[in-house]
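2024-03-11 09:14:02 DEBUG pipeline.ingest accepted 1 chain
2024-03-11 09:14:02 DEBUG pipeline.ingest length=483
2024-03-11 09:14:03 DEBUG pipeline.predict start
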Amino acid sequence: MNNTQNTYNTDKLISIIVLLFMFTAFLERAVQEGMFFDGITYASIARNLAIGKGSFWELYYRNSWTFSEHPPLMFGIMSVFFKLFGDHFYTEKLYNLFIWVLTILLLIQFWKKLTGRNKHSGYELLLLTWVIIPTVLWAYPNCLIDCTMALFDLAAVYLLFNAYTQKKYVVLSVIASAILLFCATLTKGPVGIFPLAVPVVYYMVYDRKKIPAALVHTIIMTAVIACIYWLLWQQDDARQSIQRYLDEQLLAALQGKRENTGGDLGRYALLVELLNQLLPAIAPCLLTIILCKVFKLKPQERYNKHVVFLLMIALGSSLPIMLSVKQRSFYLIPSFIYFALAIAMFAYPYYAAITARYSVGMKTMKVVRITTAITIIFIAVFLSYEFGQIARDGEYITDIKAMQRIIPQGEKVGICLEMDKDYQFLAYIQRYHHMEVNLQYATSKYILVDYVWCNGNFTDTLLALGYQPLNAPTRKYSLYKKE
């Protein structure tokens, strides 16, 4: 609020617009059915864990396959949501919302510490900068494991920054951060350990005389994480789980045996992707600086050290991904947080100068509040209409739902060998109705045929074995049953 009690800084108005945009864009995706392949797979594994299929250290996906692509922590947490809310399409969406909200709250708190203000301090600039990074608004509603890992890492970085800034509870914060980093690595492996560098980075930027103490803190955190893993290694099931992950995922990725998603650029494709993703975030901040120059306003405070600190963390969380030729834009989710913080922090003095200079009156704010309330009602109506609508992969979801009315829950459905390569289909059929596939199709009562994958002789074989086609209301698949 300005000096007069009858006006409000425009940042209040902007914050309302940003928050409405953020949550509407997120919830529109969250209330609809269908998700990215990885998210559907993760939800299936968590659901299986919730109903007693597999265990925390031996995650069950389908048939005899033990899932070892990632460590088990996120699946354990998400399984609690399935136990609480049941097996519905929106259960994993509630988990996504939970991670989204916690990340936003932590970002706002971190921003307040960075700006040194306890009250409203322009956090809407940060949130806008972060959320308009294309992959951010796409990844969180799609149940990507990177989002959960990013939350643990953000909490660790915040704890360390707060302790160093306040000079209170430093050792306790270091230990707590180590536990959070253990959780990050138990979510997605070593890529979550980058905040180990935060103590050194912090004192390199703010007080170089204390770098030796920072090194000690990093050693302490490393020792705590190592001790926890050493204790886990003494347990047979935990050791076997960790060993499977190391052999089948981590070492294979480092040796270049995983798929090459970088094309001709290989490992350097990440740099191009990083630039493409950050351009939308840079644009509004650049516009803010230009407007400040046009209006001839002078920013008062500078946060250059904060910007350097955040950029160093951002680079530390993104560049190590180049060690593997398997790269995706969503692997950068943790680093986007610190890039957004750095970009917004650089532009914040200019933004603060504009919003402090221009204000809105109480009458205008009353209109804004009424308009906001009406907008929220319209959004709620819109979201209720969108609830349960199929957003993607409609041919899979529609056909599997049609099969649910015919095939008993938990049935193993026979398929041809080629269909075992249609991973999108495998994820959806596992996720819905507890169904699974059976490559030994002749032992199944029901057989599903996809003519895109199965050769023309497959149906002749089924007829010879005594299977008969069912008049199922499916579009992509044909269903056969043996009486």
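2024-03-11 09:14:41 DEBUG pipeline.report The chain has two domains: 33-357, 394-482.
2024-03-11 09:14:41 DEBUG pipeline.predict end
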